Hints:
Layout: E1 2-6, H1 11-22, E2 26-30, E3 47-48, H2 55-64, E4 67-72, H3 79-84, H4 86-107, E5 111-117, H5 140-159, E6 162-168, E7 170-172, H6 187-196, E8 202-204, E9 216-217, E10 219-221, H7 222-235, E11 242-247, E12 253-254, H8 255-266, E13 273-275, E14 284-285, H9 290-296, H10 304-317
Parallel strand pairs: 1-2, 1-4, 2-3, 4-5, 5-6, 6-11, 7-10, 8-13, 9-14
Antiparallel strand pairs: 9-12
Helix pairs in contact: 1-7, 2-4, 4-5, 6-8, 6-10, 8-10
Amino acid sequence: xxxxxxxxxxxxxAHVLRALSAAGMDVVVLDDLSTGVAxxxxxxxxxxxxxxxxxxxxxxxxxxxEVEGVIHLAAKKAVEESVREPLFYYHENVEGFRRLLGAxxxxxxxxxxxxxxxxxxxxxxxxxxxxxxxxxxxxxxxxTKLAGEWLAAAAQRALGIDCVxxxxxxxxxxxxxxxxxxxxxxxxxxxxxAMEAGxxxxxxxxxxxxxxxxxxxxxxxxxxLADAHVTAAQRVTGSGSAAVYNVSRGVGxxxxxxxxxxREVTGIDLPARxxxxxxxxxxxxxGAADAIxxxxxxxxxxxxxxxxxxxxxxxxxxx
Length: 319
């Protein structure tokens, strides 16, 4: 069967595309290149340059390529930007997904893997967040992802779309030297870029109620995340079921701990500079990955050192 991968020219999307291809799955990419890079889509993979907001183009592509399932990654994802531009985020992430679901319904496509986020949880007062914790997002980005989950669940009930919803935690690293994270908001590329330039890496807030005062996150290697998408796609049967899974390691790392690993990997020993907190950042967010391990047999294989080392290798390869 053929899968449509929206956002397949982006950082995560390019990894998912390679993982799907390595698993022998046929893929067509839909990406408007607003943030993606065309060169990340191999010449032998069909690439429709369009937004998910263009329902008719999406419907035509689904029909023409005989697509039977969609892996939906295309979205805007910067928390701080979402606080500044909530209407833009709701339009891109919620309305875009609504139109994609409409195109799927028009074309009779009944399989979906949806890219959600740990941002749906907000600031739960638990050591490890399970899927049963009540979502309460604290920023517009997380709100749009939760709204997407609601839309997917409604489409499952009304249209019989079989869906797996993946709540990512903090994605990092590179699965290959040419697939580095170009983000200007994620901690690891920000820190490595600063250190490479001989500047102190920035800590956004050191007065949180955590052991060292900095935010704690659950980091997941992007290659592990890509494998989770392959596993989820193989799980979707088209029978009208729905499932939600965390994609995480269940291990929390503080900002200071990440910077310590970055110093070890790079050999660049620069003290950090503390800046004010960023709006919308929870103090701690660590996931429980028991459900996806039990139901799908998936678990992460890479640790934090692997993530930082692969990100550094990709950065150096890119010059």
